[in-house]
Design brief:
19 helices, Rossmann fold, 6-stranded parallel sheet, alpha/beta
Length: about 475
């Protein structure tokens, strides 16, 4: 079976979040299930620079203001289609934001172009590749089911995956004709959403199946509190909704082979983590103390991620005699608050504003616990990699965090299955309690070691999620 996967990011060519990891990992994960998946992504400069075995697949004249073409290519052995449209994608930096930090004003046309190109492939216009299923990811690919539904040629069934409902792709209604959609598409049963064109809404309305990246998140977004204006649609389409957990690329995230670590280790050689902790403290300018509880935080610095709660509970971290290391970028006010915390707590709090893949791996291998205090979290990959590396995740009891971390409550500890610490509600007081619980567990070394080994024994790979996706594809074709 052939599947066309369509999205705006793919690791390692371009990444701003977990979408890229999923797009990059799914093709290899699905291969053992007999699924040949090929991704279509935009031709950003970083993407074009990372391609090999390129050859033209389809010319597309006058695509939203300029000529474009679909390239057939590979990247690190992964077969791809790339939409080469320099007038839309030959821009440096963030895929979505201009130099002023604001959305590119033509983002509607840029990602509608991606969807139009995908629709052409889906309808069999590229020789040698006729997909049985088309899989669209997030709002940037949301118009794809619309182009297929309102087109004039037969089309394969479609899947729409919601990685984060907070980003919906809303654009003015007057763009309908510009985007090549007929007037009949602008209805409540089509692309219309609160008087605008809703890219994500269109995909969720018109796809044959909808998935999101954890069962708990699928339930949360069906409520008025979590649905962000789409809960009515989600409830109406409940029979088409599937919550499928993300997996982790266990070749990239493997403490036994990870070149970014000071010392590689396994669950049987956990003592190796001490050298990584020492290296992390040295790298970040923290006091060298192997006995101190070291919290790590690797995250986009945004309100959704609850970083303000961590800043609010810094006095609790102080009182516990613990340390904190942060890696991330985002909201300027949060960045300023973290820089101030570093100045006020030298040797105990450290932060790198930005993102470094190698440092992220070192934090997972050297921190004792990883904080994930998200207000909502569709799935989350940080807690998966933390458990893979024997760092105890301290997580809000929401979405995929609740689905992937087994709380160290009395039952979990007695049964010997605990892998982390959950807290609720998502508030500073509850996080403070979670920090204190973590410190008490850290002081009980045998219990802490059991939790680490439990966490490292979890199957966080793509094996089970891939089986569920393959079954979903087959059900749509059948």
């Amino acid at each position: 079976m052939k599947v066309l996967s369509v999205g705006s990011e793919l690791y390692p060519l371009v990444k701003t979040g977990g979408l890229a990891d999923v797009m990059g990992a799914l093709p290899a994960a699905l291969a053992p299930e007999g699924i040949a998946m090929r991704a279509l992504i935009p031709g950003y400069p970083s993407v074009l620079a990372g391609l090999t075995k390129t050859q033209p697949a389809l010319d597309i004249p006058a695509l939203f203001g300029g000529d474009a073409r679909i390239i057939s290519a590979e990247s690190q052995g992964l077969p791809l289609f790339v939409l080469d449209a320099p007038h839309l994608f030959a821009r440096p930096g963030n895929p979505y934001l201009g130099p002023d930090g604001m959305d590119w004003p033509d983002n509607a046309q840029r990602f509608a172009a991606l969807c139009r190109a995908a629709a052409m492939i889906a309808q069999g216009t590229v020789a040698g590749f006729a997909p049985d299923v088309v899989h669209a990811h997030d709002w940037q690919a949301g118009l794809l089911p619309a182009y297929l539904r309102f087109g004039e040629r037969p089309a394969p069934p479609t899947v729409m995956t919601v990685h984060n409902l907070a980003y919906q792709g809303q654009f003015p209604a007057y763009l309908l004709g510009t985007l090549g959609l007929p007037a009949r598409a602008f209805t409540i049963d089509g692309v219309e959403h609160y008087g605008a064109i809703g890219f994500l809404k269109a995909g969720m309305q018109l796809a044959d199946a909808i998935t999101t990246v954890s069962p708990s998140y699928a339930a949360e977004i069906a409520t008025p509190e979590g649905g962000m204006g789409l809960d009515g649609l989600i409830r109406a389409r409940a029979s088409a909704m599937h919550g499928i957990l993300n997996g982790l690329d266990t070749a990239v995230w493997n403490p036994a082979t990870d070149a970014a670590l000071a010392v590689q280790f396994t669950s049987r050689t956990l003592a190796g983590r001490a050298a990584n902790k020492q290296a992390l403290q040295a790298r970040m300018g923290l006091d060298q103390d192997k006995a101190v509880l070291l919290f790590g935080l690797v995250s986009r610095l945004a309100s959704q991620k609850g970083i303000d709660l961590v800043i609010e509970t810094l006095p609790v971290i102080d009182a516990l005699g613990a340390q904190l290391v942060v890696l991330g970028a985002g909201d300027p006010s949060i960045e300023r608050a973290l820089r101030a915390a570093v100045v006020m707590r030298p040797g105990r709090v450290a932060a790198t504003i930005g993102f470094e893949e190698a440092l992220a791996h070192l934090i997972q291998s050297g921190a004792d616990a990883i904080l994930v205090p998200s207000r909502f979290e569709p799935c989350g990959l940080t807690q998966l990699s933390a458990q893979r590396y024997g760092a105890i995740p301290v997580v809000a009891r929401v979405g995929g965090l609740a689905d992937t971390v087994i709380d160290a409550n009395e039952v979990g500890l007695t049964a010997g299955v605990a892998t982390g610490v959950q807290f609720a509600p998502v508030a500073a007081d509850a996080l403070a309690l979670g920090l204190r619980r973590t410190a008490a567990l850290f002081a009980d070394k045998p219990a802490w070691r059991r939790m680490q080994r439990n966490a490292m024994a979890l199957d966080v790979s793509w094996t089970q999620p891939a089986r569920r996706y393959a079954a979903l594809y087959r059900s749509l074709v059948n």
